[in-house]
Amino acid sequence: MPVRIPSELPASRILADENIFVMSTELAIHQDIRPLQIAVLNLMPTKVVTETQLLRLLGNTALQVDVRFIRMGTHMPKNTPLEHLDAFYESLDEVLHERFDGLVVTGAPVETLAFKEVDYWSELVRLMEWSRTNVWSTMHICWGAQAALHHHFGVAKYPVEHKVFGLFPHRILDAREPVLRGFDEVFYAPHSRHTEVRREDIERVDGLKLLAVSDEAGVYMAVSEDRRQVFVTGHPEYDRLTLKAEYDRDVARGLPIDLPRNYFPDDDPRRDPVFTWRSHAHLLYSNWLNYCVYQSTPYDLSDLPSRG
């Protein structure tokens, strides 16, 4: 939450110059507060695991957040019981008439397919178009980020020669961007993908701003200029052992898989990895909820303006 101080206090200017969020007493008096309405489109195969990972991050702020889960009606998941989906998920058609402060679109294990070859692509396009008018700010993760960059901005995805798999250092490009407030100049985050978007493609698009990159993993984060769309190509929500579970799974199946980079101590898969990205993940979601959603979403969601 912001520090509330008089706007005339000398510290106000100093803190603002340091990219610390301060709120004037005058502005705070006029703020209305209500629970944020956040929807999650969970496209991951291990839905229960992903639910826990995301709720851990969405719930670690002083803000009250109401979360609703959405699923694609044109796709039947293989790894989640139907009873769980019926109990806790809604279809897109069930929420099309509603409005939300925020939306999270997860990754999905389909990145090697062309977008139009994904069996629920048409329905996902409907959701992305619906989000223009019914959602204030959307966080897109991994393949979800690639899909949204392609649909909204025409950014291509490309296959990579070797799977981007492991824990990678990233550097921020604009320390004054609100969604990066409090970030270290270099921070770690997990990746697990067979495709990429490229820096030069994003930098050519009016309306997009590149925020963080990795020399090893490439583009990590970008935002639309109005911060109503956030794109993260990695998986900051992953738990300590998620990459290990993916590695062990592929080894057990006899699939070709390299050790995740920079992950196991001394590249020894018998040793537990050090959890070095947890604080970054919490800070990313806290910043998104605060600066991209809470500080700018209309109090009355019926006043929600559409995105351009």
- Within the CATH hierarchy, at the fold level, what is the topology? Rossmann fold
Shape: globular
Arrangement of strands in the largest sheet: 5-4-3-6-7-12-11-10-8-9
Summed up, the domain count is 1
CATH architecture: 3-Layer(aba) Sandwich
What value does the average pLDDT take?
Answer: 90
Give the structure's gist in a few sentences.
31% of the residues lie in helices and 26% in strands. By secondary structure, it is α/β, with parallel strands linked by helices. The strands form 2 sheets. A 10-stranded mixed beta sheet has the order 5-4-3-6-7-12-11-10-8-9, with helices on both faces. The chain has a two-stranded parallel sheet with strand order 1-2.
Keywords, separated by commas or semicolons:
12 strands, ten-stranded mixed beta sheet, about 300 residues, globular, two-stranded parallel sheet, 10 helices, alpha/beta, Rossmann fold
Describe this structure in words.
By secondary structure, the chain is α/β, with parallel strands linked by helices. It has helices at residues 10-17, 25-29, 47-58, 82-88, 92-95, 121-134, 143-153, 199-203, 242-252, 278-294, and strands spanning 3-5, 22-24, 36-41, 65-71, 89-91, 100-105, 135-141, 158-172, 186-196, 208-214, 218-224, 229-232. It has one domain (31-301): Rossmann fold. The chain is built from 10 helices and 12 strands. The strands form 2 sheets. It has a 10-stranded mixed β-sheet, sandwiched between helices. The radius of gyration is 20 Å and the shape is globular.
